[in-house]
Amino acid sequence: MAERRALRRWRLGLAWGLSAILIGGYFLLGNDDEPSAATVPKIDDAAGTATADGRLEILEVLPSDPSPGAAVVIRIAGQSSKPGAPPVAASLGGKAFADGKRAIEVLSRQGDALVVRIPKGARAGSGKLRVSQGEGKDDDESKPYDIRVKPLKRQKAVGGVLGGLAFLVFGLRTLSRGSRAYTGHRSQAVLGRIGRRTSAAVGLGVLVGAVTQFTTSAAGLVVSLIDAHLIAVGPAVAVLLGAHLGAAAAPSVLGLAASREGLLVVTIGVLWISLAVDRGSEAFGRIIFGCGLLFYGLYMLRDGLGPLVADPEVLTYIDRFHTNTLPGLLACVGAGVLLAAILQGPAPVFVLVLGIAQSTGRLDPHSALAVLAGTGLGGAIATVVVAWPFGAEARRFARVHLLLALLGTILVAATAGLWVDLAQALVKGAAQQVAPGKKILLPNIGRHLVAGFAMSQIAVTLLLALVLPGVMKVMQKLAPTAARVRKVLTGKEGVTALRAGLGRVLKLHRQTLEAVRDLCLLGQRARGREGEHILADARAELESLFSGAMRSPASQPELVKLRKAALATLQLQRAAEDLLVHAERSTERNSALAPGRGAFQLAPRDENVLKALHQLLIEGLDALDVRLTAGQAPDIDDARSREIRLNAIESEARQGLLSDADRGEPSRLIALRLNSTDLVNAYESVGNHLYRLYEALAAEVDQEASDDGGAMAGG
Questions:
Q1: Residue closest to 254 by CA, chosen among 168, 340, 170
Q2: Partners of 90 in the beta sheet?
Q3: What's the pTM?
């Protein structure tokens, strides 16, 4: 015991030490991407440096091989800086245009540097770049500077964007799962207790959103609390309003982090996962791993978005997303709604919008914030999909949240200009200030977006939380009984429906056992996936059936019996799910233990044991299905006989394992037998719950107990 504790401490210490060495060594190597004086124009604020002949001169152009739509930096000399002097303009000629020289757009003028954009109609090949100042006379124009316009590599750009999005979403999901695992198993109960008070629900939602990272994940948690009656609809809506704010907050800050170091963070995360000594340290490693994937996804996204959005064919569509017109505003909001519904929350949308705005300059802060305004409604649409199958209360919760999200989206979109102005006043540096770098054209716009989006979401969340009680009252008046419409199973129709439903579930369980048999005996992994889908269908059928049975009055003995059978079938479902999990693990272990990693194999004795267990369970399910269909009580004696044989087979398998160990059989054979013994135990558990189902259907119901149960149900 002491040695294991010492080993765990040693592994944790090694994880911390190697992490520190990796971080220190990485930054001691220096920044390879830091531009040198020889590759980046030095901006001289004292503009107006004279040339030998007094004419304008282009000293340097970077990059010298731009694509159409790309931004380039031109360092010039000889321009006039006198008061009233005309601005310096630029033009491009040569083979770039068939009709000769054309003026090109100047994005920024800073000292002795111009930032210009290569026209989207420029053809690939050599070009002549010139700058001029004044009326365009020859003595006001520089000599041509040769550049080469290269064609846009669309496939590489699209691959970078798709890869970046994949890393981004996978990173957020990994971060979400690691955070949930790190917070502990009792978190859901704690959240339920806090969420009972509406005043604390919004703050709780911010925490939930920051942990889960996805609106759908937060919605799933809240719906489970509603389903367990741990939280009312009103506080649940407040929780989800706060969750939207929390889900947007963390990625907003992470999106401004140094994404270039993403692979370093990934390496540290893998290191922690590999050296984890318990679930807590493994969850911590997954949090780091998820952050690294998020950083690297943003890095790839920025790398691919620049040339892709500069594509002349794409520019036409991107330029439509501007809020200077009503259709443009609606297009921005609609894009945010669609993206948030598909990507399941505001976090991926924020990073995507941030990447477009920073790397291309084609999306101004007002338009970017209008896109982000739609994320609330998009997340609410995704919430409706999650909540709708969970009953009337969950659907009521989804409707209220959808209405409030629509109001919030309208408010943010209508006041986007206000938040942009506030951000401009509070954040240092102009949002549209151009500072050309390798990946980022507008580095300041990220801070402005974070400030504007955060302020708008805080204000709207607080406002919606204040009006929530009133909205709940209005919704209750409009549909006072909508939340109480429930399907109740009563009378002969209820008995028939329960019997038919139980029969359908038993047939699905039989199909699951057939899939488990093929998985265990033949190693067919596809059958395991089929079994998982069949069990999911069985659970959906059983939950609907169980809900109706539990709400039915207990005045009829037959209904009481079938209600108990529904509960026993639910336990049988869980045992079947455990059996499938054990079967998957058993197949993996048997494949790993195969000689020379050869074909899948199962010892003949174990194969016979599993076949015998399978046959007994199939006989039990078939016999019970026949009796249910006929409306007859099951044969409890036959069921007891099968249960005894199941227990005997399990006992023989355990004794066989001990005998093999006593005889000194090879360790590989012992491992195979031990693996099969775990599977036999899972089969026996299914058999035990099947026998309890027989008992529930064969039991005689006391009428007095039925009357008491009916009184309790009526109360």
A1: 168
A2: 104, 131
A3: 0.51
